[in-house]
């Protein structure tokens, strides 16, 4: 079962790299882009602002079955490619060595308990949509994402199922799905007629 992936971000102008690990690849890439836009400090984000997002390549290096393997592979890639700043964009040696103390975890837990996320405004949704337009994912990354999805554990699938239980789709969502399915079946039918 795939637990997570190691990914690499490469500056196509100076070949400097950043290695990271995640269990939610697209969310992680989205977070990197948002941090760069929101002036978060750090070698990677400063470089994205300086060279422009179009000059960075995002790709999956490998998938890992356990957290221990994920930590080990991140550390190994950072070390082998010597990507700690100033040679690259990593600021730590990887392997999740920066874990919070129990006291800090408790403070975070108390602060977040009972907190509800506000629904995204239409303006915010539009900004997210525009940020994703034109974003290209390599064929290799698509294959690795597909494999990660196919090898998802039953436990993870159940968590995802539970998260969606009881949520109703809006009439607009239902109509979009209906239109997609009508198009899909119309294409299938036309393929069948061509073959016969």
TrEMBL record:
Single GO molecular-function term?
endonuclease activity
Annotated region (Disordered), positions in chain: 153-172
Q: Which Pfam families match?
A: GIY-YIG
Q: Which residues form the GIY-YIG domain?
A: 2-91
State the signal peptide span: none
Q: Which Gene3D superfamilies match?
A: GIY-YIG endonuclease (3.40.1440.10)
UniProt cross-references to SMART domains, sorted A to Z? GIYc, IENR2
Q: Which InterPro entries match?
A: GIY-YIG_endonuc (IPR000305), GIY-YIG_endonuc_sf (IPR035901), Intron_endoG1 (IPR006350), NUMOD3 (IPR003611)
Give the family, as the similarity comment puts it. Answer: To endonucleases of group I introns of fungi and phage.
| Protein name (record) | GIY-YIG domain-containing protein
* Annotated organism of origin: viral metagenome
Q: What is the lineage of its organism?
A: unclassified sequences, metagenomes, organismal metagenomes
């Amino acid at each position: 079962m795939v637990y997570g992936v190691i990914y690499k971000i490469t500056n196509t102008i100076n070949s400097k790299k950043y290695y990271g690990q995640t269990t939610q690849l697209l969310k992680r890439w989205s977070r990197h882009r948002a941090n760069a836009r929101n002036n978060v400090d750090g070698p990677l984000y400063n470089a994205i602002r300086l060279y422009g997002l179009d000059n960075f390549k995002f790709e999956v290096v490998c998938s890992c079955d356990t957290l221990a393997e994920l930590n080990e592979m991140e550390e190994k890639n950072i070390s082998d490619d010597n990507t700690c700043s100033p040679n690259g964009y990593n600021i730590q040696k990887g392997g999740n060595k920066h874990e919070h103390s129990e006291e800090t975890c408790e403070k975070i837990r108390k602060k977040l308990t009972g907190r509800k996320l506000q629904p995204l405004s239409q303006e915010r949704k539009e900004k997210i949509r525009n940020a994703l337009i034109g974003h290209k994912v390599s064929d290799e990354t698509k294959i690795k994402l597909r494999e990660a999805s196919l090898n998802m554990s039953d436990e993870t699938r159940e968590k995802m199922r539970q998260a969606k239980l009881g949520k109703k789709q809006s009439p607009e969502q239902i109509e979009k799905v209906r239109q997609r399915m009508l198009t899909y079946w119309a294409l299938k039918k036309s393929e069948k007629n061509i073959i016969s």
